Amino acid sequence: MSVSDLRGRFEGLFERDITLVLAVLGVIYLAYILSGVVFGYGLRGQLNSVANLTFYIGVFGMLALALNLHWGYTGLFNIGIIGFMGIGVYVTALVSKPPVAEGGAAQVGGFGLPLFIGIPAGVLVAGLFGLLVALPALRLRADYLAIVTVAFSEIIRFTMMSRTFQTYTVPDTIDLWLFTVDPTADTVGLGGGGGLILNYTDPLEALLRGLFLWEPYLAFIAFVQRNFIPNNPKPVIDGVAYGIVLLVGVGLFYLLLTRTGQSPFGRVLKAIREDEDVANALGKDTDRFKLTAFVLGAALMGLGGILWYSGRGSVTPPSFRPNITFFVWIALIIGGAGSNTGSFLGGAIFAGVLYQGPRYFKNLVEAAFELGSAPRNFGEAMAGFASLDPMPFVLYTLDSISQLRLVIMGVVLIWLMHNRPEGLLGHRKETASTVDLARPGSAESSGKPSAADGGEER
Amino acid sequence: MSETNESTPATETAATDEESPPATDGDQPTGSSTETDLTKLVKDDPEAHTGDETDRYAPLEVEGLRKEFGGITAVDDVSFDVEEGTLTGLIGPNGAGKSTTFNLITGMLEPDEGTVRFNGEDITGLEPYEIANQGLARTFQIARELEEMTVLENMMLAPKGQIGESLWRSVMPFTREAVRDQETEQLERVWEVLDFFEIDHLADEYAGNLSGGQRKLLEMARALLTDPDMLLLDEPFAGVNPSLEKRLLEHIHELREQGYTFLIVEHDMDLIMNNCERVIVMHQGRILKDGTPAEIKESEEVIEAYLGGEV
Q1: B73, B282 contact by CB (below 8 A)
Q2: Among partner residues A260, A270, A441, which is closest to B149 by beta-carbon distance?
Q3: Residue by residue, what is the 3-state secondary structure of B176-224?
Q4: A273: nearest CA in chain B?
Q5: A456 close contact with B: CB closer than 8 A
């Protein structure tokens, strides 16, 4: 009887989470599709817009979840997210790029191994760098860890740009103690300021081939081409399919991190966040827990980076500036640190509203009203006020909306800090335990689920 | 105040025996008595506690402890031992070095000189978690509960040897079953201890929402769940109202009856004098006097240094 009660309670909770997530996603997607209608998009345009939105929801969702493990659970102030992402991408590229003959093209090559080796290698190396950063830094207080991580991510970016690592000639044979390796690669490297061309198999194609779904997928594209989108539908369908892959990725991140959080391991992480001395006094080797959590989070950030950038034709060091780190932080703060559901929700809202939203808003306004061309500079924009005409200013504002995005984010952050510092789903009791903690064998305590998840504010 | 120390703990515990078993039993849905369950937590042979009073085994031995903070000697050549199954009080004016001594014993600070031995093993300079795992649990002067965790989470955190504290065991599908089994088992004990301290009605509350006294109870309950041989309580009665103070004392006496050993740092002279079998007085980093409450009260040095000649 109590088992079914517990099950009902669990499902009730699950349902509410699901409802909330679906509602938010529904509103965001609906807004995008409706604005697509206003723009007069055809099917192709709509799919493109949806695919783009899904991509950013996916990557920000994943990264916010990974950051939640660091900050929300363990209280580790990591502002070097982009560094781990960059390591993931670059290592994957090095391992999987096809080899280039020595002295051939100006571009550097890689080891030509398939992506299913390259991606795990990228994740692994990101995790190893997590260990490297964490080992000396975890003994430091939170704010010092933050300095170490942000410095680390900049070191990574400068290493990518460095001439020293630009190209490296691989010897024809490498002697390893007992056996000799003959690598296929001749020149490898980080490509310097020019970045790397990611000329390996498209990750989506590699995945679908691995699942033996490539042929059906091509057949599906041919079908779409015959019936819906006559000219070259593949890039659009690819975008949508990759979006779906990313959402599955988010699901896996969520599953892994929820299991991590709802366990004795996660309980110790929470205790470290609250008061490390107490956790220590209760016999927990907090350094070990912090290290494990940091490495896992860093590896997941590496994977997030790989999924973000590896589908593009190339990567360059400027993509790995710290601003993405702060975007992920904003996403987590919106969603609510400490809650996995909240992290994903924050990622989705950030991607849909703050990251992509302003540009859509601008297009929407431009499509709805016939507006003249915007003034070229701020002076011209202000000149309108002299004749009590605000239009130049409005146009100018609208025209610079992608620069204003950061201002909008800042305003949202300040508002959140004042009015809801715990985020949308912060301060929820995502109880860190594998089992229900109600008094065993009592129906009475399981009958008050309201006490368990009120989203109480302090 | 004129009572001798021998009679006072005895009367306290007698009162405890009369009052608390019905109270705790009333909250037990399983019907099993809290007292028997808690006794199970004590690893030692119960025979050991009934032995000769004068020659008891001393699990905690502190010898020649010394700690300097930039030229100021906070703790200077402190040596004492705490006998098994006793309630020992550590008193002294502010800045006498009591809390520093505590931190030196529990590994929060490393001594410059001296040794700490627990159950015959040298634990000097070990990490706090290693010392806790040896069976020496502590509470903090200002109750440090984990605010944004529920009371239940706080309690579930404490037990030692949780297999689910390994990440892969908690995450992998098959090993997670074993973690669940262990947690289910642990949960029963958690509820027993919650009942014992009568804070079971707060189980779902965030620890940060508890009152000061409730936090003290939670902290002691949590420390108890680490399965310790000995508990070091740093000012457990500070900021606690008289009725809760009485309750806390009852719990302490009850636990002591069951074989737990206590070392208590406290400011309240009367409280220590009336409840402890032995009192250690610290002054300016040194041990001024070590003896029974009666001896302490008669000691000229103590009266001068600490009591200001009032008693």
Answers
A1: no
A2: A270
A3: HHHHHHHHHHHHHHHHHHHHHCCCHHHCCCEHHHCCHHHHHHHHHHHHH
A4: B146
A5: yes
Which residue from A minimizes the CA distance to B152? A437
* Contact across the interface for B140 and A278, Cβ inside 8 Å: yes
DSSP chain B: ----TTHHHHHHHHHHHHHHHHHHHHT-SS---HHHHHHHH--S-GGGGGS-GGG---SEEEEEEEEEETTEEEEEEEEEEE-TT-EEEEE-STTSSHHHHHHHHTTSS--SEEEEEETTEE-TT--HHHHHHTTEEE--SS----TTSBHHHHHHH--S--GGGSHHHHHSHHHHHHHHHHHHHHHHHHHHHHHHTT-GGGTTSBGGGS-HHHHHHHHHHHHHHT--SEEEEESTTTT--HHHHHHHHHHHHHHHHTT-EEEEE-S-HHHHHHH-SEEEEEETTEEEEEE-HHHHHH-HHHIIIIITT--
Q: Find the closest chain A residue to B172 by CA distance.
A: A259
Evaluate whether A75 touches A142 at the Cβ level (below 8 Å): yes
Name the pLDDT band for B19 (thresholds 50, 70, 90).
Answer: very low
Q: The domain B1-15+57-145+223-311: what is its CATH number?
A: 3.40.50.300
**Does the CB of A97 have a partner CB in chain B at under 8 Å?**
no
The answer, for A433 touching chain B at a CB cutoff of 8 Å, is: yes
User: Could you report the predicted ipTM of this complex, rounded to two decimals?
Assistant: 0.81
Where do the structural domains in chain A lie, given as residue ranges? 44-320
Q: Which two tokens stand for residue A224?
A: 């779409």
Determine the Cα–Cα distance for residues A401 and A279; give it in Å rounded to an integer. 47
Residues B200, B152 contacting (CB under 8 angstroms) = no
How far apart are alpha carbons A190 and A159 in whole angstroms? Answer: 8
> pLDDT for A13-60, tens place per residue?
555 778 888 999 999 999 999 988 888 888 888 999 999 999 999 999
Domain boundaries of chain B, sorted by first residue:
1-15+57-145+223-311, 150-209
Whole-angstrom CA distances from A371 to A56, A247, A387, A405 are 30, 38, 18, 21
Chain B positions in Cβ-Cβ contact with residue A340 (cut-off 8 Å): none
- Side-chain-side CA neighbours of B163 within 13 Å: the count stands at 14
Cβ within 8 Å, pair A434-B180? yes
Pairing of strands A314-315, B136-138: unpaired
Tokens at A24, concatenated: 């938010």
CB A387 within 8 A of CB A299: no
DSSP letter string, A215-261: HHHHHHHHHHHHHT--S--HHHHHHHHHHHHHHHHHHHHHHHHHHHH
Chain B residues with CB inside 8 Å of A429's CB? Answer: 150, 204, 206
First to last CA, chain A: 34
Give how far Cα B140 sits from Cα of A83, A249, A273, B237, B245, Å: 39, 44, 18, 11, 16
Q: Which residues pair with B290 in a beta bridge?
A: B280
Confidence of residue A140 (pLDDT cuts 50, 70, 90): confident
Quote the pTM value.
0.84
Q: pLDDT tens digits for A263-312?
A: 999 999 999 999 999 999 999 999 999 999 999 999 999 999 999 998 88
Angle value at C-alpha A123, between A330 and B180, nearest 5 degrees: 80
> Residues B25, B33: contact at Cβ < 8 Å?
yes
Q: How many CA atoms lie within 13 A of B254 on its CB side?
A: 23
Rounded Cα distance, B84 and B260, in Å? 7
Amino acid symbol at B26: G
The answer to whether residue A447 neighbours chain B at the CB level (below 8 Å) is: no
- Structure token digits, residue B65: 């402890």
